């Protein structure tokens, strides 16, 4: 119980402050009434899979994978909007036309959506071909993809 509360607090701290050392993280937890040692923090950092990214006020800061995924997803969504030219479908196939050089980028975005009905995709320079599990699901997948364009 204590461990999960402490780890939850760590995620809260690194989301609101730039913490670049385990010692700083330890100090913040002590301020929040957690009795911790640097060794405990080290294990928590490993368990939470924290890593360091460039900070704005400090050279580096701790970040969690989930916060990274959210920021990548936002950037990828904007990129998707910016480089998709058309989405067309036929039977269980969806063709996405992109600006030159962006077929694989759009493919990465579509893969990240983890849509169950998508069996796979093949990217070219300016095209992404998506294979859907049935003709019935194609329109639903097209609708989901078009929502990201608005």
Can you describe this structure?
The protein is of the alpha+beta class and 150 residues long. 51% of the residues lie in helices and 22% in strands. The protein contains 6 helices and 6 strands; from the N terminus they run H-H-H-E-E-H-E-E-H-E-E-H. The strands form 2 sheets. Strands 3-4-6-5 form a 4-stranded antiparallel β-sheet.
Poorly predicted ranges (pLDDT <50, ≥5 residues)? none
Q: N- to C-terminal separation? A: 43 Å
Please trace the helix and strand order, writing H or E for each element: HHHEEHEEHEEH
Amount of beta strand: 15-25%
If you compute it from the alpha carbons, what radius of gyration comes out, rounded to the nearest whole angstrom? 21 Å
Main sheet strand line-up: 3-4-6-5
Describe the sheet with the most strands: 4 strands, antiparallel
The proportion of residues forming helix, as a percent range, comes to 40-55%
Oligomer category: single chain
Label the overall shape.
Answer: elongated
Helix and strand content put the structural class at: alpha+beta
Mean pLDDT: 90
Number of separate strands: 6
Helix count from the secondary structure assignment: 6
């Amino acid at each position: 119980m204590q461990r999960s509360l402490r780890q939850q607090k760590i995620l809260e701290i690194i989301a609101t402050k730039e913490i670049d050392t385990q010692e700083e993280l330890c100090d913040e937890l002590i301020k929040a009434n957690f009795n911790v040692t640097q060794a405990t923090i080290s294990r928590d950092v490993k368990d939470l899979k924290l890593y360091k990214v460039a900070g704005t006020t400090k050279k580096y800061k701790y970040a969690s994978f989930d916060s990274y995924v959210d920021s990548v997803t936002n950037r990828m969504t904007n990129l998707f909007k910016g480089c998709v030219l058309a989405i067309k479908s036929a039977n269980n196939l969806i063709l996405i036309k992109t600006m030159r050089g962006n077929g694989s980028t759009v493919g990465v975005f579509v893969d990240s959506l983890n849509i169950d009905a998508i069996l796979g995709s093949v990217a070219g320079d300016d095209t992404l071909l998506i294979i859907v599990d049935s003709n019935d699901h194609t329109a639903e997948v097209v609708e989901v993809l078009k929502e990201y364009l608005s």
